[in-house]
Write a structure and sequence with these properties.
disordered N terminus, 3 domains, alpha/beta, 7 strands, Rossmann fold, about 290 residues, single chain, five-stranded parallel beta sheet, two-stranded antiparallel ribbon
């Protein structure tokens, strides 16, 4: 929803008010999710479900336009959905100005809705399904359905990274994980968006989507063998005894395959003491200098 407000020099500035759809899935099932394909980036679908709920039809929600999709599992029990949705409604009402739509056939929500409207003038209502609550399609515009990969990434992002510094760069981060061609380029672009210390959490959450990416864009098998030979030559000259000898192959593998300096340090510290790891990194600095 957009609101136009007059400002200096008679210009108009458009502010977007977000709309949150709180779905009582145990009550409405997949039928309540129909009609979400035309939603915009200012709309958010939050599905509350229990282990006893009917199986969620991913095909039904895969095409949810540009809207954010978030799924929240709640304990099974009498009025569990009512309590959790009512609580979340209060959280949203206090967070910022927004529109809230409860998707449910349960008329018990109507008293909660009346309360919030009367006390704070909150824009809140109840619908039986998402269909008919979204903005109209742009004329002659065709909305492309997101892939299953995008649905999963957006869902996980909404659950785990709904805070600073991630939320401010949400769309850019999601785009990087959707279009990444290699791990090194992905890391380089992420460091332009958020502090490097915050990046490992993203890798952990989305590891299934990047595990098959090549380490670098242009490293061929020949280049990699040459690089490994360089590491082995230097390693043999400086690290011949003790723990260095015992862990030689694992250490060299880390040095050859790592895509960031931080990864080198983290992986080495898993198998040898920190002081030993620092000594190795210092010795191989000339070969590691190009890593982000």
């Amino acid at each position: 929803m957009s609101v136009e407000i007059g400002c200096l020099a008679h210009k108009k500035k458009v502010f977007t008010i977000d709309t949150y759809y709180l779905v009582d899935y145990e009550n409405v099932g997949s039928n309540g999710l129909s009609g979400c394909k035309n939603m915009t980036a200012s709309e958010h679908i939050i599905i509350f479900f229990t282990q006893n709920a009917r199986k969620i039809d991913m095909a039904e929600i895969a095409n949810h336009g540009a809207a954010e999709l978030k799924m929240i599992e709640i304990p099974a029990g009498k009025q569990s959905a009512d309590i959790h949705i009512g609580s979340y409604l209060g959280y949203l009402a206090g967070k910022s100005k927004c529109n809230i739509v409860i998707i449910s056939n349960d008329t018990d929500f109507d008293n909660v809705i009346k309360f919030w409207k009367k006390e704070l003038g909150i824009s809140v209502s109840r619908k039986k399904k998402l269909q008919g609550t979204t903005v109209k399609k742009q004329s002659n515009a065709q909305v492309n359905a997101p892939t299953a990969k995008e649905v999963q990434i957006r869902s996980q992002f909404g659950q785990k990274f709904n805070k600073s510094p991630y939320i401010e760069k949400k769309e850019a981060i999601i785009a990087l994980f959707l279009n990444a061609k290699d791990k090194q380029s992905l890391n380089t672009e992420l460091t332009k968006l958020i502090p490097s210390s915050q990046i490992p959490a993203l890798y952990k959450a989305f590891k299934e989507f990047i595990k098959n990416l090549p380490s670098t864009k242009s490293t061929s098998k020949v280049d990699k063998k040459k690089r490994e030979a360089q590491f082995r030559t230097i390693y043999g000259q400086h690290f011949k005894n003790g723990i260095y000898k015992e862990k030689r192959d694992k250490i060299i593998s880390i040095l050859v395959n790592a895509t960031t300096k931080q990864q080198v340090n983290n992986e080495l510290c898993k198998i040898i003491p920190g002081a030993n790891a620092s000594k190795i990194i210092k010795q191989f600095q000339p070969l590691l200098k190009d890593l982000p």
